[in-house]
Amino acid sequence: MVGYIILLVVLLTLFVVLPLGVVAMVLSIVYNRRERELRGEAEAHRKILESTYDRIWKEVKTRCRLTEQHRRSFSGVYPNLIDQEMDDEIMLNYILDHNLDFDPSEYAVLKANIADDRQRFVLHQRRMLTVLDEHNRLLENKIAYRLLKNKTLIKYVPVETNYERWGIPL
What we know:
- The protein has 170 residues and is mostly helical.
- The chain has one domain.
- Helix 1 packs antiparallel against helix 4.
- The mean pLDDT is 84.
């Protein structure tokens, strides 16, 4: 009788416990790798978004002859600048509030120079939001959550944009 119990324990270990442990180990590797990939992609998009902001600021600063002290007030104008076709009146008022000597004929050049950066920002922010959504779904998966080493959310505050205006489906 004892021999049958030992045989049963050995068989259960070989055919149930061991395979479950292997499956858990493989799933742990897969989930943790995916989590690191998503975190890395989010960081890459964050850097692109920050560099786009810096490039647009540099263009506005150079063309409009603003100083670095105006950067803080520019961050208040930036979401509107990104979200919509640049409202000429609002943007010109912002520029003229900070530089009365600004030549309005330079505005058309400024607008053309930052158009591509605006499109790039919207595309990368859209991808960033997709990555955040994928990461959140991974954390909501009960099995994955138990096997993940890093369970912290990726933090990002999006700039409000109207994606439909840009032809990007939600």
